[in-house]
């Protein structure tokens, strides 16, 4: 079981989730600590695996990927090895792959430029992973990519 965070660590994590580019001075001001104390705490949070990285977020629509869909997949032959995530990992249109309980085995989030490209992608997924697919096109997203804040 993971260690709990104290109030100062929570402040730092919330600030970093809100702005991953926050400077140590900005973090120190919000936490009421010195820059060196904050630097030490941030390093400890990273070492413990609480903070796992810093990255840019790209808006798919800003780069022409206007169509997003959930693709539920089920193996055609359940006796075959369950290696679907590894088989699909190289397909860059697959943003995420989740193992799920229920009728399907996995749910993918995919992003493509058009319905025609989605159709081609589904065929590639079926052929690559030997699966059946069921797609749901996303019409509107009210919120996503919400980072967990302890």
TrEMBL record:
<dbReference type="InterPro" id="IPR019887">
    <property type="entry name" value="Tscrpt_reg_AsnC/Lrp_C"/>
</dbReference>
<dbReference type="InterPro" id="IPR036390">
    <property type="entry name" value="WH_DNA-bd_sf"/>
</dbReference>
<dbReference type="InterPro" id="IPR011008">
    <property type="entry name" value="Dimeric_a/b-barrel"/>
</dbReference>
<dbReference type="Pfam" id="PF13404">
    <property type="entry name" value="HTH_AsnC-type"/>
</dbReference>
<dbReference type="InterPro" id="IPR036388">
    <property type="entry name" value="WH-like_DNA-bd_sf"/>
</dbReference>
<dbReference type="GO" id="GO:0043565">
    <property type="term" value="F:sequence-specific DNA binding"/>
</dbReference>
<feature type="domain" description="HTH asnC-type">
    <location>
        <begin position="5"/>
        <end position="66"/>
    </location>
</feature>
<protein>
    <submittedName>
        <fullName>Transcriptional regulator LrpA</fullName>
    </submittedName>
</protein>
<keyword id="KW-0238">DNA-binding</keyword>
<keyword id="KW-0804">Transcription</keyword>
<keyword id="KW-0805">Transcription regulation</keyword>
<dbReference type="InterPro" id="IPR019888">
    <property type="entry name" value="Tscrpt_reg_AsnC-like"/>
</dbReference>
<dbReference type="Pfam" id="PF01037">
    <property type="entry name" value="AsnC_trans_reg"/>
</dbReference>
<dbReference type="GO" id="GO:0043200">
    <property type="term" value="P:response to amino acid"/>
</dbReference>
<dbReference type="InterPro" id="IPR000485">
    <property type="entry name" value="AsnC-type_HTH_dom"/>
</dbReference>
<dbReference type="GO" id="GO:0005829">
    <property type="term" value="C:cytosol"/>
</dbReference>
């Amino acid at each position: 079981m993971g260690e709990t965070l104290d109030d100062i660590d929570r402040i730092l994590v919330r600030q970093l989730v809100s702005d991953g580019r926050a400077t140590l001075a900005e973090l120190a001001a919000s936490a009421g600590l010195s820059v060196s104390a904050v630097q030490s705490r941030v390093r400890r949070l990273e070492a413990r695996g609480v903070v796992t990285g810093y990255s840019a977020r790209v808006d798919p629509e800003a780069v022409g990927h206007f169509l997003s869909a959930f693709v539920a997949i089920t193996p055609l032959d359940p006796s075959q090895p369950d290696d679907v995530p590894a088989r699909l990992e190289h397909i860059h249109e697959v943003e995420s792959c989740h193992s799920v309980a229920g009728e399907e085995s996995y749910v993918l989030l995919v992003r493509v430029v058009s319905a025609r490209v989605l159709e081609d992608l589904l065929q590639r997924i079926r052929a690559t992973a030997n699966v059946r697919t069921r797609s749901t096109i996303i019409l509107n997203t009210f919120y996503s990519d919400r980072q967990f804040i302890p």
